[in-house]
Every structure is written in C-alpha cells, then in structure tokens.
Specification:
It is built from 3 helices and 15 strands. By secondary structure, the protein is α+β, with helices and mostly antiparallel strands. The protein has 3 domains: about 45 residues, no CATH class; about 70 residues, NusG, N-terminal domain (Alpha-Beta Plaits); about 60 residues, no CATH class. The two termini are about 35 Å apart.
C-alpha cells in the first residue's frame, strides 16, 4: 500500500490507516500526509471499486465550500467533533470565514525530549466564533457531530476567557488537565505573565495552581503560579458560563 510522498499510478479513492480519512487522487500525483495527522507517516489503502464509484458519484468529499457567513453578533461556542478530527474541522471552519481554535498541549515522545508532538487539550471539542443563525451552515463538515449545549440553555464562552488562554500559551506556560471544579477560592493574578487572569486557587505543598474550569464541557485546566506573583481574592465572584481558554 502506498505511503505519503509516493507517486500514484492511477486515479482512485484511498483511505488513511490512521483515522479512515478519504481522498481522491489523480494519476501521477503524490500521496499527501493525512490531513488529521500531518506530522506522521501516512499509509493509504485503496477502496474497492464499488465504494470508489459510489463516493465519486455523490462527490460528498469534494463539494464546494459554503459561502462566507455574514456575522451579525458572533460569540464563542463549542462544537463536539469526532476525535482526531479537531484540526481538520478547525481548518474547514476557517475556510468558511469562521474563527476557530483548538487548544493544544505538547507531549514529549521520549524521556530525553528528543522530539515532541501536539495533541488536543480537549479531545473531541473545537471552539469557534459564530452567530447563532449560522449553525446549520457548517454541520455538514465531516467530523462535526453537534453544538454543545450547557445547563439552563447556556451555550457560549465569554470572550475574555478566550483571551486569557491565548495569553497563557503565548507566555509558554505549561498547562495540565485538572478535575472539573467550579467551587473554591476565586483569585486574580496581579502581576507577571498571568496578570489579569482569574481562576480558582489550588494550594499544594510546594506550588500554587490557578485552575480554570470550563463548565460547558465540564473540563478544567491548571497552570502554575510563580511563588512571587501577587494575587487578589475575589469574594463572591462566580463564573457565569465556566472558564474557557483557547489557543489557535
């Protein structure tokens, strides 16, 4: 079976071994990397003739993109998608002029950190900014399952929370997954790279953590606060929609 970089001998439909992504490829063209795993070697398996004819007939994988969506009052929402489709869904959203973000974490593949890969921090979710009336225009994107609906009809993520995570990751601070929590001592960091960021304080024997809960998907992340960083307590503060933090 052909791999990425090899030349195709005849027109056909192929499926990747890693996540079953399907492509059309013409004769003499080079096989690409899997769009969902561009940094990994890809093995392509040819589909049987009946499936290839059916796929070619309905052209569902190569239909034109929808026109750009007119934005009336766009806000941040969350899409539930198939795992391993997060980045390809974000790419298709951007092609339709919809702002999309996928939170990523870096993982070292060997003990001496000779190389690393980036994986979604929240597998199965993509954050995007759109107007409510535009929902039906991108539910046809391969991999999209549904929009996430929270309790009491809440389905948006505040803009400031998106900005907070972008600042955290731009500062190069390590982020880790954390058990979902909404109650605790609410604080705001007063100085340093996290200045102005609000979250829930978690004290450990040798460190302080700022926990950022995302109520809409019931997930949390945590980031270490430097020992000398000043924080202020916010009595009675609450997160109306949960804390969401996104990186492009």
């Amino acid at each position: 079976m052909p791999k990425n970089g090899e030349q195709n001998q005849k027109f056909g439909v192929y499926r990747s071994h890693c996540c079953s992504a399907e492509i059309f490829i013409r004769e003499s063209a080079s096989f690409p990397h899997c769009p969902n795993h561009p940094r990994l070697a890809t093995i392509w398996q040819p589909l049987d003739r009946h499936r290839a004819r059916r796929t070619r007939r309905d052209r569902s994988l190569i239909r034109p993109l929808s026109p750009s969506i007119k934005k009336v009052n766009p806000q941040w929402h969350v899409l539930q998608v198939r795992q391993r489709f997060e980045r390809i869904v974000a790419l298709r959203l951007r092609e339709r002029a919809i702002e999309a973000c996928v939170p990523l974490r870096q993982i070292d593949r060997k003990a001496n950190a000779t190389y690393s890969i980036e994986l979604p921090l929240f597998p199965g979710y993509v954050f995007c900014k759109y107007d409510e009336v535009a929902v039906s225009s991108f539910l046809d994107i391969p991999g999209v399952r549904s929009t996430v609906q929270g309790d009491h009809g809440i389905n948006i993520v505040p803009e400031q929370q998106i900005t907070d995570l972008q600042r955290i990751l731009a500062a190069g601070l390590g982020v880790q997954a954390w058990p979902f929590v909404l109650q605790g001592r609410t604080v705001m960091v007063e100085d340093g790279p996290l200045s102005g960021v609000t979250g829930i304080l978690e004290q450990r024997a040798d460190k302080r953590l700022l926990v950022l809960p995302i109520e809409l998907i019931r997930r949390s992340i945590a980031v270490k606060i430097e020992p000398l960083s000043r924080i202020s307590f916010r009595s009675g503060a609450a997160f109306p929609f949960g804390i969401a933090h996104i990186t492009s």
